[in-house]
Amino acid sequence: MLLRNGAMYSFAIKRHEYWRLLAYGFLHANLLHIATNMLCLLFWGGHLEKRIGFLYFAIIYVAALIAGAIASDYQHAARPFVAVGASGATSGLLGALFALWILGKINLSANFFVTNIGLNAALSATVPNLDWASHLGGFAAGVIACALLDLIEKANAFFLRCKFPEFVKANVAVALAVGGWLAWSSRPANMALSVEGLVLIAAAGAILLVKLIDLTLSLRKGLAIVVLGLSIANAALVILAGNIFAPRWPATCTTFDVGGMMTVRQWLDTACSNTALAIDVAAACACVLTIFLYSQALYRGLTDVGFVGSSLRAARSRHFGI
pTM score > 0.90 for this model? Predict the structure, then answer.
């Protein structure tokens, strides 16, 4: 069952089943296994996310998850293995905290790291079937990823005027990822540009977008403009995704099982029979939901008389680095 649903195993990378590098971290062997990892996520992740925000937390978590799988594959190269669990990723969170402590950017004692790193190492060495390579690889990835993010933030102090609010960073990152995936999915088969060319164009576009948001945030009422821009961008992504996948809707509608929920079945049939209206309604919901979620920032931006942009610029100076 674990192999069928995404466990990491001996030939996953050789067979180009790269999706397993992420999927294995959401599978666990038993209740004790998942409970242990979720406790680590609570104790270590709480400190980290509070300090660096959602986006950087997610980047470190994913980097550690992938690194843990690669380290495990390398360590078991001589014999078959099956690996599941979020241990590599949670060890990466501890590694990121350790990097912040070395950089003097978090208020934790040395005893915290002696206790937690020592306990992690002791469990890795003594518990049967516990993948020590995944723990070590995830921990190293967490240290490296956190240090690199700190360097990026220090570089941003020279290239960007404002320190972006967390919701702006997260929404822009998700929008760029979804937009890139949709553009790649809908590309013509005979496209003349190479993959490298597309990546360069996408990177240049992302840099220009970030700089445009940076300049907007520095203006009076710029925060409100950014919130409205994000709501429009989210709605546009829903429309783009709907139009790309609309041809597949009829087949999905006929095979999608909703159990005995007749109301849901009726809504689904209505949406499938009028895809244009369904896409417009979904886009409007995305726009309204974005405005609702960012309503405090929108209000702050609308009442701005010049202080918001100044405070965002000052935040860049106060927090040099991550």
Answer: no
